[in-house]
Amino acid sequence: MDTIRLTTAQAIVKWLINQRTMIDGEDVPMFAGVFGIFGHGNVTCLGHALESEQDALPTWRGHNEQSMALAAIAYAKAKRRRQIMIASSSVGPGSTNMVTAAGVAHANRLPVLLFSGDTFQHRKVDPVLQQVEQFHNPTETVSDTFKPVTRYWDRITRPGQIIRSLPQALAVMLDPADCGPAFFALPQDVQAEAYNYPTAFFEPRMHFIRRPGPDPREIEAAVAVLRHAQKPLIITGGGVVYSGAIAELTAFAEKHGIPVVETVAGKSTLVSSHPNNAGAIGVSGDSASNAIAEDADVVLAVGTRLQDFTTGSWSLFKNPDVRFVSINAARWDAVKQHATSVIGDARVSLELLEAALGDYTAPIEWLEFAQAQIAAWNAHLDTFKRPEDTDGDGHMLPPAYNQVIQVINEVCDDDDYVLSAAGGLPGELLAGWRSKQVGTFDAEFGYSCMGYEIAGGLGAKMALPDRDVVSWVGDGSYLMMNSDIYASVLTGHKVIYMVMDNGGFAVINRLQTNTGGAEFNNLLSTTRHTNFQHVDFVKHAESMGARSELVESLADLPAAYARAKAADRTYVIVMNVSAYDWVGGGTWWEVGVPEVSERNEVIAARGEWEAESKHQRDGL
Q1: Does residue 128 surpass a pLDDT of 80?
Q2: Are residues 396 and 390 in contact, defined by beta-carbon separation less than 8 angstroms?
Q3: Residues 185 and 311 in one domain
Q4: Residues of the chain with pLDDT > 70: what percent?
Q5: Would you place residue 1 in the very low, low, confident or very high pLDDT band (cuts 50, 70, 90)?
Q6: Helix (H) or strand (E) holding 46
């Protein structure tokens, strides 16, 4: 057997380079690149191996380990999970900084490959710098913190172990059912060890994402439910997008006359003007989709994990006879709520379901009802197409989020890629953004991770170099993680950042007051402070090399957006917006409301909680 002697780190890099995939008929690398912050634990071995292979596997300098891993996740989402990025950190805090990003990838079923340095296996020098010692178990290090938030976890303790482990990790990341982050702890001494690797291990290999088909009996059972539906509803999730099943789902809905509502991950599956598009469902959705969901008698959930923001904490579906059919590649998701499950790829499953369902169509009145509801919602959105309001003295008041959103929605290009995460903006965009082209929306709301917006904008732009990426960022998220503005300038990946400043964590302030609490510690004005200093986001962005401007009026916004589109680098548009004006339209969401309180407002909110919780489904 032919062998080649390499260090563990060199062998890892060589194997990564030789993994290939096909995208639109083109042979491309499976691993598109590496984000790295080097320190002890990854600079001397993995860094050395990467340096010599820069052309085949480009390395991009990160500025925060969490943000670079978030950028890698956004890249994978924009690539529809067909290509994967890598993030590498040193030992200690560099490693644990990536734990949050691993949670984002895990919750959203997205692939990312994480390499962390680790302490020495020989332990002669323990404790090393940044080592957290566990008195009860010397084999535990901070790398073990990744176990709950990864789909695949391994610590390489012998060089030859990667021959078995790397292919298993990639298989998990490419599996439509198990897709998620893979993590490797790489002890410093093991990275440096040499081993005689079989040359066959490094032969180029072509990979693809499997399309598992459902059991024919599952299709038969699903058809039996759907054929009797008088008020069917399709919920489309991210799995439809990743499967490439948008055309099949659209044709299915059109043929059978079924309204389609979108989750956060499924937003822009249909363009907003499509006659079957009935809006965005759930807590952060619109009144149209939620009114339809309340009355539906059969719900066909395709590629969604049915999280509480979609289901209104399972209080939304009020028809006592409602039944669920769930198409999902992941068994875990398909069997939720005792659904009639179809476990398989969304495209394959829809094709089989279509063939078996025949000429069934829902009553035309049902689709007409849905169209009337969404027309009313669009009329509501149109009310936000207005100038700023003024106070009693004629001073201009900050606009609502959706006043800004509607202006940009009208002037943007059809293929502009809209991105957001956490805070109030995902809900405002989910309910208010009217998609002009399919596949143009990314809101990280599976883990609701503040800070994804700026890093994610960078990763999405790397994946979509020929399109404008427009990332919507609240002032709270901006202050939490902003260093990738500099990264976008440094690397030449231009992003348009819409920074909406409402003076703090306004959406949590809304939750706080809506449940009877006093305003406290969310808006900056309600925090404990001695010097209330307004942040100049324009100057801050400019200090990192971006172009930036403060837009003071909605009337000036189209011209500012045009300047951003024409700019030669990352452009930051800052606007002050209201902390109290929201688009509305959502449904109830369960949060803990105190049973005992000295505030009458809290007691009243507890009464509302008790009334709404009676609508929750008990898993059946």
Answers
A1: yes
A2: yes
A3: no
A4: 100
A5: confident
A6: helix 46-51
State the Cα angle at 501 between 496 and 505, rounded to 5°. 120
For 456, the enclosing helix (H) or strand (E) is helix 452-463
Residues 6+ apart with CB under 8 A from 523: 503, 504, 505, 506, 509, 579
Question: Cα–Cα–Cα angle for 481, 487, 408, nearest 5°?
Answer: 70
pLDDT tens sequence across 450-459:
999 999 999 9
- pLDDT score for 620: 61
**pTM exceeding the 0.85 threshold for the entire prediction:** yes
Pairing of strands 3-7, 194-198: antiparallel
Is the model's pLDDT at 264 over the cut of 80?
Answer: yes
CATH number at 545 reads 3.40.50.970
Q: Is the same domain home to 550 and 435?
A: yes
How is 361-409 classified by DSSP, letter by letter?
---HHHHHHHHHHHHHHHHHHHTT-SPPPB-TTSPBPPPPHHHHHHHHH
Residues 333 and 244 in one domain: yes
Which pair of tokens denotes residue 53?
Answer: 């292979």
182 pLDDT band (50/70/90 cuts)? very high
The two structure tokens encoding residue 453: 């917006």
- Asked if 128 contacts 91 with a C-beta cutoff of 8 angstroms, the reply is yes
Q: Among residues 207, 226, 260, which one ends one of the domains?
A: 207
Closest listed residue to residue 255, CA positions, set 324, 350, 375: 350
The set of residues, in sequence order, having a beta carbon less than 8 Å from that of 61 and lying 6+ positions away, is: 35, 36, 37, 487, 490
- Supply 97's token pair: 């900084």
394 and 413 inside one domain: yes
pLDDT tens digit sequence for 466-490: 999 999 999 999 999 999 999 999 9
Q: Which residue in the block uniquely carries the two structure tokens 């809900």?
A: 427
Return the structure tokens found at 17. 């380079």
Joined together, the tokens standing for residue 124 give 């002669």
DSSP 319-365: -TT-EEEEEESSHHHHTGGG-EEEES-HHHHHHHHHHHHTT----HH
C-alpha–C-alpha distance, residues 490 and 470, integer Å: 18
Per the listing, tokens 């399972």 go with 314
Phi and psi at 432, nearest 5°, equal -110, -20
Which of 189, 207, 225 terminates a domain? The answer is: 207
End-to-end CA distance of the chain: 58
- Which residues constitute the domain of residue 92? 3-207
Q: Please report how the helices 162-174 and 8-17 are oriented relative to each other, as an axis angle in degrees rounded to 10.
A: 40
